[in-house]
Amino acid sequence: MNIRFRNAGFSLTEVMIAMALALVLLGGVIGVFISNQNTARTTTDLSNLQNSVRLTFQLMSQDIRSAGFIGCNNAPRVVSVIEVAGATPVWANWRGGVEGFAADADGNESIRLMYGTGVSSTVSAHAPPVFNLNSAPGVNAGDIALICDDTLSAIFQVSAIGAATLNHAAAAAGVLNCSADLGLGSPFVCSDVRPKVFQADSMVMRFESVRWFVAPSLRNNTMDALFRESLVGGQVVAEEVLAGVQSLNFAYQEGGRPFAPVAFGAGVNMLNVVAVNVSIVLDPAAFPNIQLGQQQRTIEFLASVRNRLR
Question: pLDDT-based confidence at 79, cuts 50/70/90?
Fold first, then answer.
């Protein structure tokens, strides 16, 4: 018996229908993939932004809260023997610890905050230019430091350290001290003799001078960023903290007045400022993957200058 087999296969119509269904299915899969990619990108960008904003808030709040602290009952008399090119640099010129600045050409304000920080050491004896300490120094050679007692505080650069000693010599290579005399003169002339011996139990700590300001981003010069300028080994170093900042402004609350922070101006007594209101507005162009409304783009908080609160 002869058996004939018919060749099995798909017709052209069936193939075209299968291809069309496959394309529809593939398009759906690609659409879901792209959507998931966009969602993941948005989530990542939003998470990074939130982390940067949180870091900004923590750092700036800490600087404002610490401003004006110099230990030893915060004695108001402060002298600086730091000089660069024959003049006291702005970062070492004590003006009470809080100093506001007017807006620049782009409408951004800035602020400088000074205070003593880090691990403090107490003095056992002082024979200028050497402090003998009761413990290992909490600063390194080259650091800008602060020494205080109940009557005076002095800002200087550490020229050398030992196991339990700290030196504030002048005229050494790379040292910014214009004199080894840490006394106060009025008017202050660094070359004048101003002998000052800090008594036992005087306190030594690292001196911090921080400036917050807005400038072109180091990562993308098409946008601005928020910077924190601080002292590292006696050098001024600016670090980018938050990219994509449109504006930075401050308002100042003075002590003994009804709560109503006011913008920087000649009428603000910086020596009486007890709180600072910070307003940062983000640039929407810097975050294309995140939809941010005006309210969401504005970061605002109030931080107290705790060393001035009574």
Answer: very high
- Residue 108 token pair: 């951004």
How many Cβ atoms are within 10 Å of 92's Cβ, its own excluded? 21
By the 8 A CB rule, do 202 and 126 touch?
A: yes
The pairing of strands 144-148 and 153-157 is: antiparallel
Task: Read off the tokens for 146.
Answer: 């602060």
pLDDT tens per residue across span 198-231: 999 999 999 999 999 999 999 888 999 999 999 9
In this structure, what token pair is assigned to residue 93? 């010129």
pLDDT tens for each residue of 29-57: 776 666 655 555 556 666 677 888 899 99
Largest CA distance in the chain: 130
Phi/psi of residue 121, nearest 5 degrees = -130, 150
Residues 289, 293: Cα–Cα separation, whole Å: 13
Where on the phi/psi map is residue 174: left (φ > 0), alpha (ψ -120 to 50), or beta? left
| Element spanning 51, H or E | helix 12-66
- Name the nearest CA neighbour of 228 among 106, 113, 87: 113
Length of the chain: 310
Q: Which residue is listed with tokens 């940067």?
A: 52
CB burial string 203-213: b at 16+ within 10 A, e below: bbbbbbbbbbb
Structural contact between residues 116 and 146, judged by C-beta atoms closer than 8 angstroms = yes
CB-based burial label for 178 (10 Å; 0-12, 13-18, 19+): buried
How, if at all, do strands 153-157 and 78-80 pair? parallel
- How many angstroms separate the CA atoms of 58 and 55, rounded? 5
